[in-house]
Amino acid sequence: MEVKVLSSKLVKPAYNAGATPATEYIPLSIFDRVTFQMQMAIIYAFASPAPSTAAIEKGLAAVLAQYRAFAGQLGVHPDDGAPSFILNDRGARLVEASVDADLIDMAPAKPTPELLKLHPDLEGELEEVVLLQLTRFRCGSLAVGFTSNHVVADGHATSNFLVAWGRATRGLPMGAPPVHHHKDLFKPRSSPRVEHDHRNREYYLPSPTNVVGHHGDVADNIVIHKAHFTKDFIAGLRGSASEGRGRPFSRFETILAHLWRTMTRARDLSPEETTTIRLSVDGRHRLGKPAEYFGNMVLWAFPRATVGDLLNRQLKHAAQVIHDEVAMVDGGYFQSFVDFATPGAADKEGLARSAVCKDVMCPDVEVDSWLTFPFYELDFGTGSPSYFMPSYFPTEGMLFLTPSYIGDGSVDAFVPVFQHNLQAFKECCYSTE
């Protein structure tokens, strides 16, 4: 796919009164500091007639006036050097591009390296928090490549921004404004109680032999398989997993349990090995904070089992392990983390974040579930997107779950696997055994 870049500019916030507010510094919260330091990247496709660039840019300028963090930069407070969001209205990067071909002929059904051409260049030091590329195809369709810095906002907050952007473009009220972090928002109890092992969950103690990161050209051996689970298939899985249980497992618990077992079987691991899932748990409701909170408020559940136990027992066992671990990450767990992290225990003890980007997760699994985010509500005035999916993340074992664009309750799972495990994964992916 040959993409021709036409222009690149910064879109700054457009304030109704015309006067630009003063620069503000918002200190990173303990949740911002513990999360992944990475760019979140997603792709939208809009069929012809697609919205105009002028309308999208005008809406972006309007929404950035309300979501100033996405028009700012990461830096430090000049007084105390604390890592902060700088609300300085630098702007979001907007790139316009074109492809002399029809979208239907060029767009991959699943993430491939070609998708990276639908984003601005993400290599090197990025000055902006948000980078966008509007790529127009010969047929009149439009691809929107959106990336944002995860340290600034989690998936919940980002989806709020995207919906507000669409509403601003259509000239509608954007909804409740974002609520930002302040120093008294996450306060430890007067008598702190660290009731969970945060040193070995959200953090770890680095050692010279514990090297985490990227290793050579391993991405060349990874393919991203898209598995489509129909509404009927999911209903069958839930029925099987929930048999004899008063309250059925959720759609998410059931699909994740199935994929955990399927990936473990395809990897051909030894029965004695332990496999762990890392999955995000939103703390807004659990801590009694507003849904409009803009930033990160996520910790993780870590369901684990031996390979033998996972594969020799029924699907309901895997679903129950997931359910119990997520239930444990409740309001008390979040408050325990606040009590542990706020006084700076991690820095004092030399601990490092466990949320780091890797090339390979095996024997473990990481899941990003976008099943409840309103990503399909991004409407610039010509209707909802015709397609939506994560961009190209070639990390073996990092799953993305999204609602299917069909809109009938089916689910798409984007599953990065090694080439040599792909056939085994396909053979057991749609088995309900």
Overview features:
about 425 residues, about 25% helix, alpha+beta, seven-stranded mixed beta sheet
Q: Topology of this structure?
A:
Elements: E1 4-11, E2 24-27, H1 30-34, E3 39-46, H2 53-66, E4 73-76, E5 83-87, E6 92-99, H3 103-106, E7 130-137, E8 142-149, H4 155-169, E9 203-204, E10 222-229, H5 231-241, H6 251-267, E11 274-282, H7 284-287, E12 298-301, E13 304-306, H8 307-312, H9 315-328, H10 331-341, H11 345-349, E14 352-353, E15 365-369, E16 387-390, E17 398-403, E18 411-418, H12 419-429
Helix pairs in contact: 2-4, 5-6, 6-9, 6-12
Structure description:
The protein is built from twelve helices and 18 strands. With 433 residues, it is an alpha+beta fold. The chain is globular, with a radius of gyration of 22 Å.
Radius of gyration: 22 Å
Strand content: 15-25%
| Proportion in helices | 25-40%
| Helix-strand category | alpha+beta
Helix and strand sequence:
EEHEHEEEHEEHEEHHEHEEHHHHEEEEEH
Query: Termini, distance in Å?
Result: 41 Å
What value does the average pLDDT take?
A: 93
Tell me about the biggest sheet? Answer: 7 strands, mixed
What is the β-strand count? 18
Tally of helical runs: 12
Regions with pLDDT < 50 over 5+ consecutive residues?
Answer: none
Outline type: globular
Summarize the structure.
This protein is α+β, with helices and mostly antiparallel strands and 433 residues long.
